[in-house]
């Protein structure tokens, strides 16, 4: 049995109306492709076109965004390995090629005026069957058969409720590993880790020292197994104040050191000079003692001036912005470029 739509390709123009309606009403995570619709029995081509159109309209009314007709068949035929393959792994590849979350296959058997309609909903992620909807009627006209097709198509939505109640099993990975993960703002652990998430949209937050925080939004499909892998971007952390601030401090230290050295030299010049003695030492010869003060000032001043000069020497290649230029944002940073 070939994976194409028998008698369905020629219905593309009629089906396009139903597809537009489905796009307008469907939820973003209800993308569905009709990949096979088989007719058996004595049904005219007009009847087949009518039921094909009713199928798409019924799926759109059930809240699906429907893809059908030539766009589907041509996408399948591009890969010879997929055309005619009905295995679950092939179905998953077909869904991926079509960008569909679900697939629908169907069979319509007509024996005179007796109709039997069967539709099957498939999970596009693994090709597994989510359920079948089937109805039959005896001595029916094409209008009654169309109404029956609407009911069978709408019944497929009921299988999504079962899928939605089953959590999605999500494996969360990061490069580098060990990133701290939050799910919808709540702590979940460090990567790698496995989570069971309810169906629906979730926000995953990633953070690690030395890397930019990252927020990943995902749509969890109930009953499926998914992998979320994130590569974090390395971000060096500044280890000191901006260069301009350091420069200003270095100039201040250099100036203070020079002043201290000058003061020390002045104090040294007064050391040993004869001065008037106090009254209690009348008749004695007194000398001014500024040697200790001069030593302290000269030593401290030389040290501070040397430190300031050394800092300015190290930072000599960083130039201040000129008039009209942007403010310099260079920082003292020690970093290593790492590729993950």
* CATH-defined superfamily of the largest domain: TolB, N-terminal domain
Our estimate of the beta-strand percent is: 25-35%
Largest sheet: 5 strands, mixed
What is the count of DSSP helices, taking H or I runs of 4+ residues?
A: 8
Helix content: 25-40%
Compile the SSE list and pairings.
Layout: H1 12-25, E1 31-41, H2 45-61, E2 65-67, H3 70-77, H4 88-98, E3 102-111, E4 114-123, E5 129-137, H5 142-155, H6 158-165, E6 168-175, E7 180-183, E8 186-190, E9 193-197, E10 200-207, E11 214-220, E12 225-231, H7 243-270, E13 274-275, E14 286-287, H8 291-314
Characterization of the model:
This protein has 340 residues and is α+β, with helices and mostly antiparallel strands. It folds into three domains: 9-164, 3-Layer(aba) Sandwich (Rossmann fold); 168-231, Carboxypeptidase-like, regulatory domain (Immunoglobulin-like); 236-340. 36% of the residues lie in helices and 27% in strands. Helix 1 runs parallel beside helix 2 and helix 2 (45-61) runs parallel beside helix 5. The longest helix is centred in the C-terminal third of the chain and has 28 residues, at 243-270. It starts with 11 loop residues before the first helix and ends in a 26-residue tail after the last helix. The model is unreliable at 1-28 and 319-340 (pLDDT under 50).
Keywords:
about 350 residues, 8 helices, single chain, Rossmann fold, 14 strands, Immunoglobulin-like, five-stranded mixed sheet, 3 domains, alpha+beta
């Amino acid at each position: 049995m070939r994976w194409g739509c028998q008698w369905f390709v020629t219905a593309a123009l009629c089906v396009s109306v139903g597809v537009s309606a489905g796009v307008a009403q469907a939820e973003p995570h209800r993308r569905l492709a009709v990949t096979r619709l088989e007719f058996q029995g004595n049904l005219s081509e007009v009847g087949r076109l009518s039921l094909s159109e009713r199928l798409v309209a019924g799926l759109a009314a059930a809240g699906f965004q429907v893809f059908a007709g030539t766009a589907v068949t041509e996408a399948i035929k591009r890969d010879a390995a997929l055309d005619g393959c009905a295995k679950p792994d092939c179905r998953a590849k077909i869904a991926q090629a079509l960008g569909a979350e679900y697939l629908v296959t169907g069979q319509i058997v007509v024996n005179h005026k007796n109709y039997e309609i069967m539709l099957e909903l498939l999970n596009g992620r693994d090709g597994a069957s989510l359920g079948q909807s089937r109805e039959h009627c005896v001595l029916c006209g094409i209008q009654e058969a169309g109404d029956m097709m609407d009911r069978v198509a709408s019944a497929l939505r009921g299988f999504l409720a079962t899928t939605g109640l089953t959590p999605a099993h999500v494996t969360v990975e990061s490069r580098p590993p060990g990133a701290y993960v939050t799910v919808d703002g709540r702590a979940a652990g460090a990567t790698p880790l496995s989570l069971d998430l309810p169906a629906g949209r979730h926000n995953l937050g990633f953070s690690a020292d030395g890397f930019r925080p990252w927020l990943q939004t995902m749509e969890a499909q109930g009953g499926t197994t998914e992998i979320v892998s994130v590569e974090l971007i390395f971000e060096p952390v500044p280890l000191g104040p901006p260069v301009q601030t350091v420069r200003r401090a270095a100039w201040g230290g250099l100036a203070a050191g020079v002043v201290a050295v000058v003061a020390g030299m002045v104090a040294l010049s007064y050391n040993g000079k004869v001065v008037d003695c106090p009254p209690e030492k009348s008749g004695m010869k007194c000398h001014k003692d500024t040697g200790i003060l001069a030593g302290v000032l000269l030593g401290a001043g030389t040290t501070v001036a040397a430190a300031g000069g050394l800092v300015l020497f190290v930072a000599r290649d960083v130039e201040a912005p000129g008039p009209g230029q942007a403010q310099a944002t260079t920082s003292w940073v020690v970093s290593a470029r790492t590729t993950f």
